[in-house]
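Troubleshooting entry. The earlier prediction with NAP gave an output that would not parse, so I re-checked the input for stray whitespace and re-submitted. Clean input:
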Amino acid sequence: MPSRAEKLTRGRTSSGIVAQRLLTSAAMVGIDMSGRRVVVMGVTNKHSLGWAIAERLIAAGATVGFTYQGERLKSSVEGLAEGLEDCPVLPCDVTVEEELSRVFAELGERWGSLDGVVHAIAFAPREAMLGRYVDTTSADWVTALTVSAYSLVAIARHAEALMNEGAAMVTLTYYAAEKVVPKYNVMGVAKSALEASVRYLAYDLGPKGIRVNAVSAGPVKTVAARSIPGFMAMYSKVAEMAPLQRGVSHEEVGNLGLYLLSPLSSGTTGETVYVDSGYHVMGMQLPEE
Ligand code: NAP
């Protein structure tokens, strides 16, 4: 079966020289991350979006390391990392400054420098997502914003000295930052702060050649997602309304993360990029005629 590039170029040239050139260059546009070191922060298990990005990074030849929150997740993350070369697996609660200092000191000693950071961390107390946003307590608001948004700022500050020119940071966000998604409540507000932080961090770190972007993923089944009240309804709604009429896979989220960490996206920073089957472009749904 002819590829799309072959079909496009057929008929434009009898000699096929243009087609040949396109096909050759297409084969050359791979993503080679060999020699690049990326730390992925916030992996629980093989369903985590952090792991989805890590898998694609590893497939592209990158050296990856992981951080996880607390002893409870140690064996799960060590199991995922088994067999990977030069792969640090370190505990890190991102709300504790000393733990961030220790992690980046250890990465500095072991790797010398960094080419990428993945921030795949969020948390809000469940009670804050059960009722109305208007009833959010100050304590729950601070917890959600501290863990889910401020942590990116703290991580950027600790990672800055280690990051090479051309390094990139990627975080994960959700459409509820921009529009009301019932039940998402304070987590939507945290994601708004996260996306705004991406823009300010891109401005601060840009002069050093460091990029900062967010992947806005449609609903994907993970531990964090399943803890959101009504998640399965959100999940089904996307497939019903999105232009592609389906949800997105872990691999599709991983691919976008890989692209934003790679030199292929060297001109993109401060951006929120969607991988949601196009759901966010819809303004209205009408019944089938
Ligand atoms: P996940 O596998 O549960 O990952 C979330 C991670 O954040 C967990 O490993 C969690 O650890 C960690 N975390 C929470 N508080 C922390 C802290 N204080 N210090 C360090 N780590 C902490 O779920 P996920 O869906 O892949 O979430 C990753 C990111 O993707 C989140 O920002 C989420 O909002 C975002 N996202 C997810 C979806 C989706 O549908 N899944 C869609 C859009 C965006 P514990 O397990 O110990 O709490």
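This one parsed fine. Residues 42-44, 48-50, 69-70, 73, 92-95, 120-123, 147, 172-174, 217, 219-220, 222-225 surround NAP (CB under 6 Å).
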